[in-house]
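If your schedule permits, I should be very grateful for your opinion on a structural question. What I wish to show you is a protein chain and, alongside it, a tokenised description of its three-dimensional fold. Would you kindly read the sequence against the tokens and tell me how you understand this chain to fold? Here, with my thanks, is the record as I have it:

===
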Amino acid sequence: MGFNKKTLISISVQLGVAIALALFIAVSGGLMQSVNASQVFHHLCDGLFVSSILFVGIGGLLWISATGFFDIFGYAFKSIVHLLTPSKYDEQFPRYYDYKCEQNEKREGKPLTHTVIVVGLIVLALSFLCLALYNHFLPAAV
């Protein structure tokens, strides 16, 4: 996985979206009403964590779909539609092996990027940093 200029631009745009989402979550959670540093880091940690889980989850699904794991569902949907519509050309409907080979040929030319997962992991690391800062600024129990 190389980081060329296009990949870095993609990561920076996605990182901006992830941080904007995290700030929205933190503000809606009560960031503006925080009176001390521990509360600020608490809300930032929550927002960053939710944002990171979304990005890692979506990135994981994109990565799995690029391997062809979900081809069976596409073939099943196509088969059901073919069964429910009247057709004279049943012998022309592809078998699963032919469908799978066709899908693999379509995927060969497309580059696989993991930028969504990378952004999710960066935001997760920022969330852990805010958690450490929250614990640091937490008032001591008497």
In short: The chain has five helices and no strands. The mean pLDDT is 89. Residues 37-66 form the longest helix (30 residues).
